[in-house]
Amino acid sequence: MFSLYYQIQVESTVEYIHFWIVTKYAGWSGIGLGSAMAGSDMIIVNTDKTEYDYFNPVGGAPGLDTAQTEAGVSDVILVKEDKVSSPKVFHLKRKTNTGDSKDKVITVGQNQDFIFASHNTSTTLSQHNSAKAILAQPISKTQICDSSCSKCSGPEPDHCTACSGEALLIGTSCQTLTKHALNTFTLDKIKLSYQIVGDDRILLHFEYNYPGWAGIGFGKGMSGGVDMLRVYMDGTTPKVEDLWSTATSRPALDTAVSGKDDWTVQSGSRSSNLTKISILRKLNTEDAKDFLITLTNLDVVFSGNTDSDAFNKHNFGGKTQINFTKENLNPPADEKSALITNICYALPIIY
Questions:
Q1: Are the CB atoms for 23 and 2 separated by under 8 Å?
Q2: Residue 247: how many other CB atoms lie within 10 Å
Q3: What is the number of alpha carbons within 13 Å of residue 283 lying toward its C-beta?
Q4: What is the SS3 string spanning the chain?
Q5: ∠ CA(272), CA(266), CA(281), 5° rounding?
Q6: For residue range 268-321, what is the model confidence (pLDDT) as tens digits?
Q7: pLDDT digits (tens, 9 = 90+) for 33-64
Q8: pTM of the complete model
Q9: How far is CA 212 from CA 94, 204, 207, 268, 300, in A?
Q10: Bigger pLDDT: 199 or 174?
Q11: Strand 53-56 relative to strand 168-170, pairing
């Protein structure tokens, strides 16, 4: 089996396309940007080469870009690979426009023809024993899933329910933003997932199995001015409170101490005590009562009350460190793992 996933990312104003090629074949696997082999820009993995950027001028076996009569440049970068597990996973990236005559310009918002080929045993390119042409796949910065999100997994309710299509609810309007890798941490009775959205927002997803509230704070404790929040259900309505703590007592609402209410609920539900709530805010709210969330290891405190949604004293809690990053902290072992299934962009195509 061969699977392909992609994601558009902008790095320091330069637009890249990331590919994840997942294959159970012992031999080579490749994709071509085009509707036929002749003239196709190709990316091939698991060969006897350490380069991945290929071009096929006339059909037959492709050659490295750098080996063409009019030489191209090796523009495909290996981000990470796992050639030991089954299936193998190759994460590669290249600029959408490399300026190389041997590379196809990939344009967001337009359809792109893809071809696929592989050999299940050989790592040389003299032949393939499977091939399939897949035409006119849309290149998008946003997730392309069906309306019920059956093609996605993980905490994706924000684009499944809060807005129609593939957007996030920002304020009172739906906006389409790039979503980066999903990461999940267990905080005692709370499963907390986060995702960096675009370049300036963070989505938090709380999941816990009790009829009460859950909360976190950015710091090592409650004293000294700590940015905190709690989520809970008000009947069937998910709620979030933006809080500020200066002592080891109940924190105050930001709005009660000259701050702003910066978290917005994206979705939430409770069924048989299983509570799921997603919330969103800017990394930098420019609010004196909010912590500037930077993409690094941060101290986090957490607590909750397993018995009531009312803001009663917590009956569990602790502290930890969380690495906030756009990257995936747990690389995939197979095509069903979190990194790939939560990208859910346009492809997969599996054959």
A1: yes
A2: 11
A3: 17
A4: CEEEEEEEEEECCEEEEEEEEEECCCCCEEEEECCCCCCEEEEEECCCCCCCEEEECCCCCCEEHHHCCCCCCCCCEEEEEECCCCCEEEEEEEECCCCCCCCCCCCCCCEEEEEEEECCCCCCCCCCCEEEEEEEEECCCCCCCCCCCCCCCCCCHHHHHHCCCCCEEECCEEECCCEEEEEEEEECCEEEEEEEECCCEEEEEEEEECCCEEEEEECCCCCCCEEEEEEEEECCEEEEEEEEECCCCCCEEHHHHCCCCCCEEEEEEEECCEEEEEEEEECCCCCCCCCCCCCCEEEEEEEEECCCCCCCCCCEEEEEEEECCCCCCCCCCCCCCHHHHHHCCCCCEEC
A5: 130
A6: 889 999 999 988 899 999 999 999 999 999 999 999 999 999 998 899 999 999
A7: 887 888 889 999 987 778 899 998 887 788 89
A8: 0.52
A9: 46, 18, 11, 13, 20
A10: 199
A11: unpaired
Say how far apart CA 158 and CA 67 lie, in whole Å. Answer: 47
